[in-house]
Structure to design on (244 residues):
């Protein structure tokens, strides 16, 4: 049923100058699922995320979020977003960054302290809350960006390569939190080029040279294509996995 879908992508095309980046991409994301955009560098994942966020316009096709056409201010306010490039104020502390985004997202004053502590705890940054962000490592900045995306209890969480630079233990902790959010009804869209990480998701779309070559549950995709791994599926359906 239509109401089961949180995001609908319909025949999306996007070009930069004469280069086609996305070519007739279509798929739906159900409410309360973890959905993955999987593909190598240059496959079109980040471009598609920018279109979903309303940061750019497609040349052709439509994107609907909660049954409303993008861009739409009401739906954007329901989204938590972590981009590949961290949008942080590096001359402020982690806590000060969190307070700024609390005000931006209009988090009630009485809830801000608890929200900040909780979200920093998710990414294991509570002990670093007072430290200036310019002194953070790249991985710490990624973790802070993820904490910020959670600060306003979004209905939809869009994460572009969120675990890059994280150690295996912290990556496991982040995924545990994503599963908890899913159980609470949050819809999560994540991009990655890491094949084993994609297997943690409910469903995925395989992007290859701007085209969606397959959509479904990870194990079903593997079995239907008579392969042993998602990487083998890429090789079978889309040629060299690492080709741009």
């Amino acid at each position: 049923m239509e109401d089961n879908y949180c995001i609908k992508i319909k025949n999306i095309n996007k070009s930069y100058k004469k280069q086609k980046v996305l070519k007739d991409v279509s798929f739906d994301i159900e409410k309360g699922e973890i959905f993955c955009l999987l593909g190598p560098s240059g496959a079109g994942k980040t471009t598609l995320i920018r279109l979903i966020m309303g940061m750019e316009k497609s040349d052709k096709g439509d994107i609907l979020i909660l049954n409303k056409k993008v861009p739409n201010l009401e739906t954007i306010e329901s989204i938590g977003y972590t981009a590949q490039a961290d949008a942080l104020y590096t001359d402020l502390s982690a806590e000060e960054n969190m307070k700024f985004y609390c005000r931006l997202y209009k988090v009630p004053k009485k809830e801000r302290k608890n929200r900040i502590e909780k979200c920093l705890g998710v990414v294991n940054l509570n002990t670093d809350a007072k430290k200036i962000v310019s002194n953070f490592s790249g991985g710490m900045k990624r973790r802070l960006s993820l904490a910020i995306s959670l600060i306003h209890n979004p209905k939809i969480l869009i994460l572009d390569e969120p675990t890059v630079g994280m150690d295996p233990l912290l990556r496991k902790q982040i995924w545990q939190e994503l599963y908890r959010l899913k159980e609470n009804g949050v819809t999560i869209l994540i991009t990655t080029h890491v094949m084993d990480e994609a297997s943690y998701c409910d469903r995925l779309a395989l992007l290859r040279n701007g085209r969606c070559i397959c959509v479904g549950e990870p194990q079903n995709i593997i079995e239907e294509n008579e392969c042993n791994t998602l990487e083998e599926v890429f090789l079978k359906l889309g040629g060299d996995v690492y080709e741009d």
Summary: Confidence is low (pLDDT under 50) at residues 240-244. Strands lie at 5-16, 19-30, 34-38, 60-65, 68-69, 79-82, 156-160, 187-192, 203-208, 211-216.
